[in-house]
Specification:
It is a single chain. This protein has one domain: Chalcone isomerase, CATH 3.50.70.20. Helix content is about 20%, strand content about 30%. The protein contains four helices and five strands. It has a five-stranded antiparallel beta sheet. A hairpin with a 2-residue loop joins strand 3 and strand 4. The two termini are about 25 Å apart. InterPro entries: Cytochrome_P460, Cytochrome_P460_sp. Keywords: Signal. Pfam families: Cytochrome_P460.
């Protein structure tokens, strides 16, 4: 699984505008910063997913995904967003920098049947249209299969 995750990381590292197959495109999560903030984390140098995921991650969930976080079962319409930002270190603090990407998981069992019912996408920087995922989410799903018992979701509410 680690090889698949690292392979996807290498793909995302290019941050190139690519398109998912027609009819399977995950929509941009308009207004996601008004959703529930589930948690934040920082990936630092030396982490296996450092490239391209080094940075500050803020995880947001819509109401449907919030319900799923409570019981590890997500209904269609659940959306999870990770907002990945560069950071700078100054005065013994990490400060948000420019946005690297917005990662999206969108639950729709019929539309994304080949990837556990989840559609996966990443949008480059501040763009709502420049897509990064070019394999229909297969690379993302390969990594998320590690948590199949949690409906393929790594995120949990901050404890």
């Amino acid at each position: 699984m680690k090889t698949i995750c690292l392979s996807m990381a290498a793909t995302l590292a290019a941050i190139a505008p690519l398109s998912a197959p027609a009819g399977e495109m995950v929509p941009y999560p308009e207004g996601y910063r008004d959703w529930t903030h589930a948690k934040s984390m920082v990936i630092q140098p030396g982490h296996p997913l450092e490239s391209p995921f080094q940075g500050i991650h803020h995880i947001y969930v819509n109401d449907a995904a919030k319900k799923g976080l409570l019981n590890n079962s997500y209904g269609d319409g659940a959306v999870i967003v990770f907002d990945l930002l560069n950071y700078t270190e100054a005065e013994k603090s990490l400060r948000e920098g420019s946005r690297k990407l917005i990662g999206v998981m969108h639950k729709d069992r019929s539309k994304y049947a080949n990837t556990g019912g989840w559609g996966f996408e990443a949008f480059a920087g501040d763009s709502s249209s420049e897509r990064i995922v070019d394999d229909g989410g297969a690379g993302c799903f390969g990594c998320h299969q590690q948590v199949d018992s949690l409906d393929y979701v790594f995120t949990k509410f901050r404890e």
